[in-house]
Specification:
Elements (H helix, E strand, L loop, with lengths): L8 H11 L8 E8 L2 E8 L5 H12 L12 E2 L2 E2 L2 H8 L4 E5 L2 H10 L2 E5 L5 E5 L28 H11 L5 E8 L5 E8 L5 H12 L10 H8 L12 E3 L2 H9 L3 E5 L5 E4 L17 H31 L1 H6 L11 H28 L5 H18 L5 H15 L4 H38 L18 H8 L4 H4 L11
């Protein structure tokens, strides 16, 4: 593909038709028009621009150049002499770009802007009047709150940037546009507040995105995550915090984090990531500090219960039945042969784990009006029949149900999936090796979390390593708004 335009418009049209499937793809619109008495060629993608504004602009451009224009040297009755000056006089809306690169024109056209090639000029006019089709703004399903904002990110990047800009009116808020994917040319925006976000962090993320070599971002932000950080099999923990809430994204921007917005993705990536981010929720801050701290402690407890309840139950039931009886828990299996008891118990626990997982996944993928009947059938009918047929144990099913409830407290699905993998590991290790299996499995989990890769100079378990007491306290406990303000603003009181 040649990259430079000619002065002859016919040659330029032939280049455009070779680069794009003009006449084959029904959504590519081309028109031969006259601009200021000069022959021109218009090309665009149908449905991706503002029709009303485009019609007004083309109407002004198609008026023949006359001597009473503001810049008489730019136009005369025979045509256009200075294309840039002519556009300044006639185009008063939208972004206008003059480019000599055919690749730049093709890239812009397939992204939404329209292009006009004018006879006699080696430059093409790119008009950015994009108007993407998109769904209405609504509250995210996975991050609902009882109080606070009810808007969430959508698939259109400009809308997402506007929702952030609406909350942060700082002139240093910056959205750097980049492109990723040799074929998809997916728009990726780097959002940060200058003076708050560290320049080293911004430069590191910018360089990593620019160095990505990929054909396309098939799965949007998820594909970008895997391309930014390459993880190994023993790192199931998510490397980045992903949120669908603009208020959460803005709070991270004020704390010096960097946000990545990927076009066609209704969520943003928060960089750098750490494990403590998944224990926080906007609900903590929309309630008073005491209630917020209570819910945060409940969330920490739910994480531990989700991982350790079933393994500890197995340990006490299979290897320490006397302790079960002394604690008045449900009876152990002292009457059976030990190895047979352990194998049976492992099967019970794994069947219950996978059975409840199947029930959860089926409920999330079926139509909303069928969720209630499916839950009743799966939870009551199948559960009761499985117990009667001795496929499940009532004790195991009870503890598995509590474990499932604790996972619902965690809004991040990737984090809860990682906890599920850790739980299965502990079930197997504890079932076969007892107390030492539980200890060794815990050590493996800690090693997996510590070695989870992320971007930036801070580790994944910051502020534990390196130790930052003040930041650790802020992550564990919810502060009052007056105490969470920077030191330079705490004394600014309204008289």
């Amino acid at each position: 593909m040649e990259s430079i335009f000619y002065r002859d418009i016919e040659q330029n049209i032939m280049m455009i038709q070779k680069a794009l499937p003009v006449g084959k793809s029904f959504d590519i619109i081309t028109r031969e028009i006259y601009i200021g008495g000069t022959k021109a060629y218009f090309i665009s993608i149908n449905g991706m621009y503002n029709n009303e504004v485009m019609q007004l602009i083309l109407s002004d451009l198609q008026r023949e150049a006359v001597g009473n224009d503001e810049n008489k040297s730019s136009a005369n009755s025979f045509g256009i002499e200075d294309l840039q000056a002519y556009l300044k006089n006639r185009v008063s809306f939208g972004q206008v770009l003059l480019t000599k690169s055919l690749e730049e024109v093709v890239k812009n056209v397939v992204s939404g802007p329209s292009a006009i090639i004018v006879d006699g000029f080696r430059e093409a006019v790119v008009l950015d009047l994009r108007k993407y089709p998109g769904r209405s703004i609504s509250e995210p399903e996975n991050e609902k709150v009882l109080k606070g904002a009810k808007d969430g990110f959508v698939e259109t990047m400009l809308f997402n940037a506007n929702m952030i800009r609406r909350r942060i009116r700082n002139p240093r808020l910056t959205f750097e546009m980049m492109s990723v994917g040799e074929d998809s040319k997916t728009d990726v925006a780097l959002a940060y507040i200058g003076g708050i976000a560290k320049n080293e962090l911004v430069d590191t993320i910018r360089t990593k995105i620019a160095d990505i070599k990929a054909d396309s971002l098939t799965l949007g932000s998820k594909s970008l995550e895997e391309l930014l950080v390459k993880k190994r099999l023993w790192n199931p923990m998510p490397s980045f915090r992903v949120t669908e809430r603009p208020d959460v994204a803005c709070s991270y921007l004020f704390e010096g984090y960097v946000i990545i917005i990927v076009d066609n993705t209704p969520s943003v990536i928060v960089l750098p990531g750490n494990v403590f981010q998944f224990s926080q929720s906007p609900e903590d801050y929309y309630r008073n500090p005491i209630t917020g701290n209570l819910f945060r402690m409940l969330r920490f407890a739910s994480i531990l219960i989700s991982v350790y309840l079933l393994p500890v139950y197995m340990l006490l039931n299979a290897y320490m039945p006397d302790i079960m009886e002394k604690l008045n828990f449900l009876s152990g299996n002292a009457g059976r042969e030990p190895f047979e008891s352990v194998v049976r118990l492992i099967c019970y626990v794994l069947f219950a784990e996978f059975g409840l997982d199947m029930l959860e996944y089926s409920a999330s993928h079926i139509p909303e009006n069928l969720v209630t009947p499916v839950s009743i059938v799966g939870g009551v009918v199948i559960g009761e029949m499985a117990v009667n047929m001795k496929w499940f144990s009532e004790e195991v099913l009870f503890y598995a149900a509590i474990t499932l409830l604790t996972t619902f407290v965690i809004s991040n699905s990737e984090f809860s999936d990682a906890l599920r993998i850790f739980r299965i590991l502990l079930i197997l290790m504890t079932g076969f090796f007892g107390i030492w299996g539980l200890v060794f499995g815990t050590a493996l989990i800690i090693l997996s979390v510590v070695t989870t890769p992320t971007i930036g100079s801070k580790s994944y378990i910051w502020p534990l390593v390196p130790l930052d007491i003040q930041s650790l306290y802020a992550l564990i406990f919810r502060k009052t708004m007056s105490n969470s303000q920077p030191d330079t603003r705490k004394g600014n009181k309204t008289p």
